[in-house]
Amino acid sequence: KVKISWSKKSDVDGYQVQVALNKKFTKGKKSKTLAVTTGWYGKNPTNHTFAKLKKGKYYYARVRTYKLCNGKKCYSDWSSVKKFKVKK
Question: How do residues 13-36 score in pLDDT, each as one tens digit?
């Protein structure tokens, strides 16, 4: 498994994070959308762990934020792509 981390952003409603086996994110893609919660228990996630990745393979990761616009998610541009190798 691998833990993907990013910087906390203010004034967003959530994040979408992806990992894949190629730079174009067409092979072996896994995606997760994480919402920012409000209130006294509010959480602004800054990481996510992906499990069941193939060991010894190179993966690519990217993150983007979203805001709710008229009930739909309006996404930002993707972050730069980071390459990493799964060791165990």
Answer: 999 999 999 999 999 999 999 999
